[in-house]
Amino acid sequence: MEAVELKNIAGGALQAKFNKAMEAVVANLLDPNTPSKDKRKITIEMTFVTDEERTQVASTVSVKQKLAPLHPINTQFGIGKDLKDGGNFIEEYGQHLPGQIKVVKIDKATMDYYIRLTEFHKQFQAVGNNYNQVVRALKNNFGEKRAMALLYKLERLSLELMLICKKVMALTQEYERKWLQK
Question: Under the phi-then-psi rule, with left for phi > 0, alpha for psi from -120 to 50, and beta for the rest, what region is 14?
Fold first, then answer.
């Protein structure tokens, strides 16, 4: 068996996740608000499950990081409803440096949008996860001509799904640019 290079697993996603975790660990090590002696850790975990015929393996790859906790900081917030638009708000008060007070408005419409966007993303991932199973089922259950015709339809619908996903990403970027406070 050839050596497996981690940078090639999941199309490079494992390497990207590791790099992100390493960046977080280094930032945590340099953060003066964390205990200097605490140990930090990065764990790469891969799980494998084979099918009945033992011809395909589903794998899940995860990268976890354990960072030192931040030293606690005490503060107080005031909360309430905005009398102009009825939205919720939270505002920190107390002794601050000039310009340090920030009002955070909780926009219910934006929260709803991102919740729905997250659900859509989960459905999109489920389609991708089932794609290989569908291809194998077509190959095993239909003749070559019928399987090829169905695969052609699957490919066309996959392209449509990809275009929809690109439209969703463009609309999300436009929404963020127009409506979210910077």
Answer: alpha
pLDDT on residue 102: 55
Instruction: Answer whether 135's CB lies under 8 Å from 155's CB.
Output: no
pLDDT of residue 44: 92
Give the model's pLDDT for residue 93.
64
Cβ 89 vs Cβ 68: under 8 Å? no
- CA 31 to chain centroid, in Å, comes to 25
Q: What is the mean pLDDT of the chain?
A: 81
State how far the Cα of 135 lies from the Cα of 180, in Å rounded to an integer: 41
Residues 6+ apart with CB under 8 A from 28: 34, 40, 67, 68
- pLDDT value at position 95? 56
Residues 6+ apart with CB under 8 A from 128: none
* Burial grade of 162 (CB within 10 A; 0-12, 13-18, 19 or more): exposed
Distance of CA 71 to the CA centre of its chain: 27
Angle at 171 between CA 104 and CA 21, to 5 degrees: 65
Output the six-digit token pair for 90: 């939270």
DSSP category for residue 11? G
Residue 116, pLDDT score: 82
Residue ranges in the chain whose pLDDT is less than 70? 92-106, 181-182
Query: Which residues on adjacent β-strands are paired with residue 60?
Result: 47
